[in-house]
Amino acid sequence: MTRVALQVPIIQSVRWSDDGLGVRIIDQRLLPGVLVECDLRTVDDVTHAIRTLAVRGAPAIGIAGAMGLVAVLTPNADVPRETLLARARQAAATIRATRPTAVNLPWALARMLACAEQTEGDGAAVLAALRTEATSILEEDRAMCRRIGERGATLLGDAARVLTHCNAGALATGGIGTALAPIYVAAERGQRVEVFVDESRPLLQGSRLTAWELQRAGIRVTVLTDGMAAALMREAGIDLCLVGADRIAANGDVANKIGTYGLAIAARYHDVPFVVAAPTSTLDAATASGDQIVIEHRDADEVRQISGTPTVPAEVRIYNPAFDVTPADLVSAIVTDVGIHRPPYGFV
């Protein structure tokens, strides 16, 4: 069989604005209906975009937070160094508080503040160093995604049937994604890959975002509701479950989009390998196990309605965690930019 390398068109979800003064993102709330980009320039812009999921995905949130900090501080280039540092700390704390579960946001902001503290000179010098650091975080993420893709692609045979959950693709990172990166690399190499995507209730990141970017890239994709995954494994056969992560504890427990835990249980029952793909920045050695991960609970209206149409009686209580934790003993492998990790896990 002759494999033909493909040119796979992949979008860029976060970058500097054309004038260099803001952060340009794809507004993911509007997909797949319309592709709209917007520029973030103020603390309110950045926090609102992160909180409302206009920008989402652990790596992309970290990048947007780092670049957003620069955008927020740009009008302060002429202030004294200590004044700029104080404003940087305050803005970073405000941005950090928007999403508590994913580790990349506090990681990126801590790196930015460390850069600021270590830079000598006036406020302008500090701001210039911060811009360079934020750009480095973006470029490193792109390279990281490529390395995850190349390593993870070794787990995909030709004509692989892959099941994924939520969105861990280019829309969630600065590059080609984490969980979708092996799929993109395999397609570039001419391997046939078919992807099945959980709808990912309640915000439909799978059907709205993953299906959109995979179709745009020319990769065969099928959408199913979250409750259909086990039946799909039994009836149609899946070669691999491949998901991303928002935080991975030292023992290998994985926090990811709600529904991932149930998918892992179904995969174990049907003897389907369950693989997590994530950058090393997602590994949280300071958190011993998943029991210590703070799980964000979101607005009940995300479950109560779809596009403004009520789907739940008004007085019924709502349970709406954004993430769940998959125990390490259900995870077959963790693919990072430095290698493929197998159990037993121990990240220090």
CATH architecture of the largest domain: 3-Layer(aba) Sandwich
Main sheet record: 7 strands, mixed
CATH superfamily of the largest domain: Translation initiation factor eif-2b, domain 2
Put simply, the count of helices is 10
Sum up the overall morphology in one term: globular
Explain what this protein looks like in three dimensions.
The protein is α/β, with parallel strands linked by helices and 348 residues long. The chain folds into 2 domains: 14-146, Up-down Bundle (Four Helix Bundle (Hemerythrin (Met), subunit A)); 148-341, Translation initiation factor eif-2b, domain 2 (Rossmann fold, 3-Layer(aba) Sandwich). The chain has 10 helices and 16 strands. The protein has helices spanning 43-51, 58-73, 81-96, 104-118, 123-152, 181-188, 205-216, 229-235, 260-269, 301-304; strands at residues 14-16, 23-26, 37-40, 160-164, 193-198, 220-224, 240-243, 247-249, 254-257, 274-277, 283-284, 305-306, 309-310, 323-326, 333-336, 339-341. The strands form 4 sheets. It has a 7-stranded mixed sheet with strand order 6-5-4-7-10-15-16. A 4-stranded mixed sheet has the order 11-8-9-14, with helices on one face. Strand 5, helix 7 (205-216) and strand 6 form a beta-alpha-beta unit. Helix 1 packs antiparallel against helix 2, helix 4 runs antiparallel to helix 5 (123-152) and helix 5 crosses helix 6. The longest helix has 30 residues, at 123-152.
Task: Provide a quick synopsis of the model.
With 348 residues, the protein is α/β, with parallel strands linked by helices.
